[in-house]
Write a structure and sequence with these properties.
Elements (H helix, E strand, L loop, with lengths): L13 E3 L4 E7 L10 E7 L11 E2 L3 E7 L1 E6 L2 E6 L3 E4 L5 E5 L5 E7 L9 E2 L5
Antiparallel strand pairs: 1-2, 2-3, 3-10, 4-11, 5-8, 5-10, 6-7, 6-9
């Protein structure tokens, strides 16, 4: 497989309205000639509502915060996060990131899955 170079500007913007977040999938078998990893950039805008509940999925995930400040909730444990911080989220853990800062909260995310479509999300608060 040849090396892959992809920029956020190469990617369509995807989003959820609630919670307010948008993301750009950089590496995924759904849109690139790649496998084994899925990765991208997500952004939570200033003033976005803080969700009452998070989401879960059947894959472990890593967040690396690029800019901004806020907090993470992982299975009810809350911690402050800012640029330079890394969070490991175990498979099945309910989690969310919230922006309470003055600039967008941007993060790089990674799943050990061939494609984003291989990650199965659930939203426990919506059942």
């Amino acid at each position: 497989m040849p090396p892959l170079i992809r920029r956020v500007t190469d990617c369509p913007t995807e989003s959820w309205e609630s919670p307010a977040v948008q993301w750009w999938t950089l590496v995924s078998g759904d849109c690139t000639a790649s496998n084994q990893l899925t990765a991208g950039i997500a952004e939570i805008p200033v003033g976005a509502d803080i969700p009452e509940r998070g989401h879960t999925h059947d894959a472990a995930e890593i967040y690396y915060f690029i800019s901004g400040a806020g907090f993470m909730s992982v299975d009810g444990e809350v911690a402050r996060v800012a640029a330079g911080d890394t969070v490991f989220i175990p498979e099945g853990a309910e989690h969310f990131a919230a922006n309470d800062g003055s600039e967008p909260l941007r993060l790089f995310y990674v799943f050990a899955r061939d494609a984003f479509s291989d990650v199965h999300y659930e939203f426990p608060g919506e059942k």
